[in-house]
Design a protein that fits this description.
Blueprint: H1 3-15, H2 23-74, E1 78-83, E2 88-91, H3 93-99, H4 103-106, H5 111-114, H6 123-131, E3 136-145, E4 148-160, E5 166-175, H7 176-249, H8 254-263, H9 266-297, E6 306-309, H10 310-325, E7 330-334, E8 340-343, H11 345-362, E9 370-378, E10 381-388, H12 418-428, E11 432-437, E12 443-450
Parallel strand pairs: 7-9
Antiparallel strand pairs: 1-2, 1-5, 3-4, 4-5, 6-8, 9-10, 10-12, 11-12
Helix pairs in contact: 7-9, 7-10, 10-11, 11-12
Length: 455
């Protein structure tokens, strides 16, 4: 109530004698008007608040509708929503394109009318699945479109209202042609990946073979050189003896024969010829032993597990790798001669060569290059440790060094399969292969194998 109205009421009340008989009534009316106005103000404030909330909800609803519309229009799969009877209620843009008809036309149709006569799944089949409250999963349908039959792989489910009552069906279908192309692309990528994997495995095998050949060549070089040198010496001895015997058979006088004997050093030749032959025999035996080792270490993996001495195997692996690549490396082996393990010696030899090679690679460029290999027996197992003086294993790669194809080496220097293959071989032997860092620096590889002596 305005101040002017209130003032008019006071003037009327003052005009009555002594305030008049209706003065109390006028006061009550004033208070009533004030209460009514207050209630009106409160109601108006509530209406304003409700209007603001309603506008906010409308804005949120519009945002959700825009989002849903954007999702439906961006879908490449055909989406059809219909009621339980099969009458179409909503489709997305992909469906309109597939059927070449707008929603206004499609919404007057029944789902059965969109299916081709030869559809592998009929509308009745869909109803049976829906009545069972089951999901429609990867069912093949054939839609009838102006461009011809459109085979699709359909997934779907029952649509419920806010009270949880079934009100319709939602179907999402992807053209099978696209799926087949995707599967074909995936199969091609998988084939390429397998080929690349086989090439990498072959590269690793060739790299291992190269290290093996280099080591064997170095090992064979010494005894073969020894045999070759002694063979030349023996050839000279043969020439001398042949010339002396020819003079004897020719009847050369004794004084001249004695002089020739001294000139040809026949006595020295006869004294040394035995040692020369022994040296050749020793070199040939060494070659034979190396070839025997090579045959044993390259034997088939299907051979039975046998006991083998660890120390000679480790020495052989170390020699074949180090002597062929880095003879200047300091190497120390501390393994008892009686230490024996159970397994395939050829495979463990390959593991040791891989571990030694990995240690050499890690020490490249280091001021001091030393490799310590120690072995001991404990709790029915043989434990071998290889410590190098490289930079050690970084914490961020420690958990991945045994993963296939993981390598920190430059491109062309490693396939990332050496440690992975070694890890698998050791596991197949019932052992373990672990990597860590030494407290004083460098990496430590720890290999555990079953002991031939048992627990």
């Amino acid at each position: 109530m305005s101040e002017q109205s209130k003032g008019a009421q006071r003037d009327q009340a003052a005009a009555l004698p002594n305030g008049g008989p209706i003065a109390p009534f006028v006061g009550q009316t004033d208070e009533a008007w004030i209460a009514v106005i207050q209630k009106m103000d409160e109601t108006y404030a509530e209406l304003v608040a409700q209007q603001v909330a309603l506008e906010q909800k409308n804005a949120e609803l519009e945002e959700v509708q825009t989002f849903i519309a954007g999702l439906m229009s961006s879908m490449t799969d055909v989406l059809i929503a219909c009621d339980l009877a099969g009458r179409i209620e909503q489709v997305n843009l992909a469906a309109e394109r597939a059927f070449q008809r707008p929603l206004s036309d499609l919404s007057r149709l029944h789902l059965r009318e969109l299916l081709a006569a030869d559809s592998p799944t009929s509308f009745e089949d869909i109803r049976i699945i829906i009545d069972r409250r089951e999901r429609i999963s990867d069912r093949e349908l054939a839609f009838s479109t102006p461009a011809g039959g459109l085979p699709v792989s359909v997934n779907g489910a029952v649509r419920f209202d806010a009270r949880g009552r079934p009100v319709g069906i939602v179907l999402v279908g992807r053209p099978i042609g696209e799926l087949r192309k995707a599967y074909s692309d995936l199969a091609s990528a998988h084939d390429r990946l397998k080929q690349a994997q086989q090439q990498l495995i072959h590269s690793e095998k060739m790299a291992s073979l190269g290290r093996l050949v280099a080591g064997v060549a170095h090992e064979l070089n010494n005894p073969i050189s020894f045999v070759y040198g002694n063979a030349h010496t023996l050839q000279r001895y043969s020439d001398r003896l042949t010339a002396y015997l020819a003079a004897v058979h020719a009847g050369t006088p004794a004084p001249a024969l004695a002089t020739l004997r001294a000139e040809l050093k026949i006595d020295t030749t006869l004294a040394n010829i035995g040692g020369t032959l022994d040296g050749m025999l020793e070199g040939a035996e060494r070659v034979r032993d190396i070839v025997a080792d090579l045959r044993r270490f390259s034997s088939e993996q299907r051979q039975s597990a046998d006991a083998f001495d660890v120390a000679p195997l480790v020495r052989s692996a170390l020699d074949w790798v180090v002597k062929g690549q880095a003879p200047e490396i300091e190497a120390q082996i501390d393994i008892p001669d009686e230490l024996a393990a159970i397994g395939h010696s050829g495979q463990i030899h390959q593991v040791m060569m891989n571990l030694v090679q990995n240690a050499l690679d890690s020490m490249e460029g280091q001021p001091r290059r030393r490799l310590d290999i120690a072995g001991r027996a404990t709790d029915g197992h043989i434990v071998l440790s290889l410590r190098d003086t490289g930079p050690g294993i970084a914490a961020d790669i420690a958990s991945r060094i045994f993963d296939p194809f993981f390598t920190t080496k430059p491109v062309g220097k490693g396939t990332g399969l050496g440690l992975s293959i070694s890890y698998r071989i050791v596991q197949e032997h019932g052992g373990t292969l672990e990597a860590g860092n030494h407290p004083e620096g460098g990496a430590v590889m720890t290999l555990t194998l079953p002991s031939a002596q048992g627990g």
